[in-house]
Design brief:
Elements: H1 6-31, E1 37-40, E2 43-54, E3 61-72, E4 80-92, E5 97-109, E6 115-130, E7 135-137, E8 140-142, E9 144-159, E10 164-172, E11 175-176, E12 184-185, E13 188-198, E14 204-207
Antiparallel strand pairs: 1-14, 2-3, 2-13, 3-4, 4-5, 5-6, 6-9, 7-8, 9-10, 10-13, 11-12
Length: 209
């Protein structure tokens, strides 16, 4: 019987915890009987930056461009659940391999003054081009492989203004590939970039009489 990938289990657990936290805090807010003002805000943000990736293959390194966006669907007292998508494309592949990917998944953000720390768990697809004529393993020459990519990560945004901010982000990735003896790779990607927030739905205040 095929064993479930542990990263898939972790992704499912992360999604369930995010949903449970969102549901619990929402119910708590509705259960309060004292007069209060509830603030609900939906927001889209876009980000882009430069990414340095250690590809985990023979010391390979990529210099890439990463771009993406977040959809924050509710602002709670302590956390903001969001849905994130991003893509990374190499502009300097080095001499070993070139990795590109498109990922999406849940994100949970908090805020302390101008700082917005967050964690995420992204899943998607990626492809690896093996440079210098390919990679030989077990008598097979591999020029390119594709894989499901699991990417838990964390980072922090720093607000420069209500719309603009800067970002520092780290992603630990899990790839499967038949081109290596272990059958897996664990790249590590660090991104420095900028963030712009679009508030498409102004804050609505509801005050109980």
């Amino acid at each position: 019987m095929k064993q479930t990938n542990p990263f898939a289990k972790l992704a499912l657990l992360t999604a369930l915890v995010t949903f449970a936290s969102f549901s619990s805090q929402k119910q708590t807010a509705h259960a309060q009987s004292v007069p209060a003002t509830a603030t609900r805000q939906a927001q889209i943000s876009a980000f882009g930056g430069l990414t340095g990736t250690y590809t985990d293959l023979q010391g390979g390194k990529n210099g890439s461009i990463t771009a993406g966006g977040d959809f924050t669907f509710l602002s709670l007292p302590h956390v903001r659940p969001a849905f994130e998508l991003r893509g990374t494309y190499p502009v300097d592949s080095g001499h070993i391999d070139s990795q590109k990917n498109f990922l999406l998944g849940p994100k949970v953000e908090s805020q302390f003054g101008r700082f917005r720390p967050y964690v995420n768990f992204l899943i998607g697809r990626g492809s690896i081009d093996y440079l210098n004529g390919g990679l030989l393993n077990n008598g097979v020459l591999y020029l390119r492989t594709s894989s499901t990519v699991y990417s838990p990560g964390f980072g922090v945004d720093f607000d420069l203004s209500p719309q603009w901010g800067v970002k520092a982000d780290f992603q630990y990735q899990y790839w499967s590939t038949p081109a290596t003896p272990a059958g897996t790779l664990h790249p590590k990607a660090t991104t420095l970039g900028v963030v712009y927030r679009f508030t498409f739905n102004p804050r609505h205040h509801r005050t109980k009489p």
